[in-house]
Amino acid sequence: MFDFDLFVIGAGSGGVRTARMSASYGARVAIAEDRYMGGTCVNVGCVPKKLYSYAAHFRYDCSDSKGFGWQGNLPAFDWNVLRDNKTAEISRLNGIYDKLLDGSGVTLYNGRARLLDKHTVAIGDKKVTSEKILIATGGWPFVPEFPGSELAVTSNEIFDLPTFPERILVVGGGYIALEFAGIFAGLGSVTTLSYRGDIPLKHFDKDLSEKLFLESQRHINMLMNSNVQEIVRKDNELKVIFKEGNTLSVDCVLYATGRKPNTENLGLENTRVSLEPSGAIAINDQFETTEPGIFALGDVVGRIALTPVAIAEGMVLSSNLFKNTNKTMDYNNIATAVFSHPNVGTVGLSEEQAKARYGEIEVYESDFRHLKHTLSGNPERTYMKLIVDKATDKVLGMHMMGADAGEIIQGLAVAMQCGVTKAQLDSTIGIHPTAAEEFVTMRQPRA
Question: Do 184 and 113 have their domain in common?
């Protein structure tokens, strides 16, 4: 009756994984993409951001090395080399995604797919039918409208600026804003971050956010309770006027004020698919929308906007659709990292969440200077925090700020998923000397 068993709109991480796994289960699958293979993560998200974060860290590594006997001036930074090498790597990854789909037997359509009804999709002038349809179109950067807002760039454009900005303003208080502020500060730009709230990363553990805020001030001019009113182009620079009365002249304004589900021009009006007040596509626990047979997952559904989450959702959905399983997604203990300077890693509940959910808890902390910096002279601090349910001794949350925080927390997330207790951490022998051993040597709870 249909051309395909499953038609996927959006070839990002979640869409591609669902398509490939569904095809491996014997389904006839097609996928459409109108922008770039691999979606946000590969092209304008996780991958290029981490590459640029590495580049920024080299500045600090060079400075730190002097205390270890390495003499000489700081090497010159060439933006064009970083940008072009990044572009080449992303092109390589795009090609890999093409080959993965082709090797899985998935039919690829290049173009924006629109729903004509619950079983029909149009890609340009071509129409195809499918028994089931998956919407995996991800998110899109959001910039509020104000005078001069068109002069700002978003995370979609920031990686490919034609020239390096000697002065940059980053607007936002989430992890994307913190990461880019740290990147450009490390690359040598005079960097200012403007946020309308009291402290960035407000959805993270409060102590962790405060520690990162203090560290960030050593590299970034942090303007809190700050609101941009207008951006004006003046000769070769941008003049930013704040509602508080101050002004700032920069070469670039990056708006990192959040992302919204990418649902424009999908033809949802031709179906019974409904949206949440946030603009996210409404789904049930099986990822089915309010139109039976149409599914959605990833950033477009507004749950947890992380690449590994979208991939895991795709694994669950494809198994349910074509292996007749009845799996649901477990959103507990999902670890995440912020590639700020220094890095942040976290898994489980914040102290505030744990208190609200469990009542009596114990908190263990360690705040120290990394062994490396006893010779480097760098004042950077490392901070670690454990949150434990007092009644059961179960670890509820693990948080870290410091070098390689993401790498360390990834390993500890396995223990969290297995239900690790504080006693089990205490019985674990640490690797010395490492920063990570602090997680198994904290003995006294905070008063």
Answer: no
